[in-house]
Fold each of these.
Amino acid sequence: MNKLPLAIAVDLCGCPNRCLHCWLGHMPNRDMEPGADEWIVGLFRPYFQQIAFYSWLREPDFCPDYRARWERDKALSVGCQPERFELASFWRLVRDPDYVNFLEELRIPCVQLSFFGMEAETDRYVGRRGAFRELLEATELLLRHGIRPRWQGFLNEENREALVALLGLSRELELSQRCEALGGEFRFFVHAGSCEGENRRLYPIRIRKDHIPAELLPYFLNYDRLHTEAELWESWRELSSPYVPSARGQLVLYVANNYDLFFNFTHMRPEWRIGNLKSDPIKELLRRITEEDIPALRAARGISLGELTRRWGAPDSTRAFEPEDYQSYLLNTHLEHGGIL
Ligand code: SF4
């Protein structure tokens, strides 16, 4: 029996959006067969003392029966409860009048909403016309029900000015004052996103550190940890140790709607697949999980960070990265170019 708590997130319901920055990667929405949730928990139950079950890994509460679904997730969990996090479906908020009541009943103090600039940029990045207006409507709805909105903006070279305009809009809407009236602060922050899934494809337009608008600097998440690619290239180019992501005591597994199993380290691409719950024996899957024995991690152990940097990095680039995101960029670029052992 494994003492490590396990969290399992299953893509039971899919997602209404196709965001250009989606770190998980775009996947088709597909209904899983009835009883899939119970069957999946049953596979792991003999081996773990604590299992937190989540029926979503993309958009929370995207399924129409979200109330019953939340009760079911709690009932299926073993020895612990799933968390709610400060997340919700803005798609559902503007379509289902009862959904905000549900969030209120759960006493969620704050909900995070993602923007990519103003209307044109946000609609294009989310992949749906009307997304920006829905986010504004969701903001108002949340405030009316005593829930603070938190706005995050994803910053690239092409939407710098639009995010400055978004900051201005948050001031026009007096979101700070209105959140204060609810007893908390309004948070607005921007960042460049991770280097996984769809966001990795945005490398050509990744924000240059010296191009971050001055107005946004106070709102840049972890700015003190932000480096240019050139700085990281220079300090890593001789490193002989590998970069190997690891669960390190926090085991979170993602289950795709075709039963493929993944760690939560990075995107859900074939090289990161642990196996398939339907076609691989559970004991073999548990061995791969415990030994972190999957193609991507085997490849990661076989190459130094210095080699990755020299092979895939750009020594003269001022693109902005946190170290973890750049490590992930280098490794995933390597894997995508066939660097599998
Ligand atoms: S980022 Fe979230 S909302 Fe956007 S496509 Fe990915 S899972 Fe869906």
Amino acid sequence: MIPAAFAYERPASLDEALGLLARNGDAKLLAGGQSLLPLLKLRLAGAERLIDIGRLRELRGIRELADGGLAIGALTTYRDLLDSPAAMRYRCLAEAVPGIADVQVRNRGTIGGSIAHADPASDIPAVVLALGATLVARSSSGERTIPADAFFQGAFETALRPGEILTEIRLPGASDSVGSAYRKLAQPASGYSIVGVAAVVGRQGGGTGAISMAQVGVTGVGDVAYRAAAVEAALVGSDGSASAIKAAAAHAADGQTVASDIHADREYRAQMAGIYVRRAVEGALAALG
Ligand SMILES: Cc1cc2nc3c(=O)[nH]c(=O)nc-3n(C[C@H](O)[C@H](O)[C@H](O)COP(=O)(O)OP(=O)(O)OC[C@H]3O[C@@H](n4cnc5c(N)ncnc54)[C@H](O)[C@@H]3O)c2cc1C
């Protein structure tokens, strides 16, 4: 449980952190440490140098955008999210965060750390996929934005380039004309998702009209969190009845190599994917009223 020796830097500003990262290609960023430190202690990962960005106030906090959306700093902790009425208006986020780990991890773990780490069983990737979030990355040569559905590229692999820091997560405005929900089958010891599903769904004219939009993010099932495109296509234009949702949910794992491990074998996990997609979509429609 003792990590190999590493150099440690604690920059006082984002610019200083970006400069350090640009000069030290072998360095790893440390945010809340809830994934990285266990990996280092177990020697499943190594780092020559850690750049501790965990105390950069400029990357922490939540602000409302002029277009009605929300900008969440990458170092915003799960606890901060739970304390923010603006963040908790996004029901799928409000339902996902309390189920992440335990109170100690939620006090230190950051939304940006979860997204940048891209663990195939983490909850937040499914939420930002379903919400159609935009991720902001900065390097010493500038800033760029990456849509969530282009960000997660494989297990622990993202679209971040060397020298980039994820700085902000932008959510589109929370609207009363769409409902959202998060449902998960949790691994009982850690809380990680065996299957986790975020759904954002709207109906034409609100009430009982046909389904006009559906965005479904799934985690825990494949080698990386993904948008369930076949489910979304089957839902849009349907009447949103129980049978239509069940038929759409049957496509939950389409195109995925379904994971198999000691907690859930491939067949069970694939079946649970369908069930939890159905529950999340039903929850999102119920939230619409
Ligand atoms: C006991 C336990 C139970 C857990 N259960 C759950 C669970 O139920 N659900 C769940 O989703 N997660 C769970 N987690 C994981 C936890 O949510 C993540 O570890 C955490 O959110 C990652 O954020 P962090 O700030 O701790 O990142 P760190 O551990 O500091 O960093 C993780 C990785 O991301 C990189 N990184 C961090 N921030 C940035 C950034 N801004 N820009 C670029 N790269 C960055 C780091 O270099 C590192 O490679 C659990 C963890 C533990 C220890």
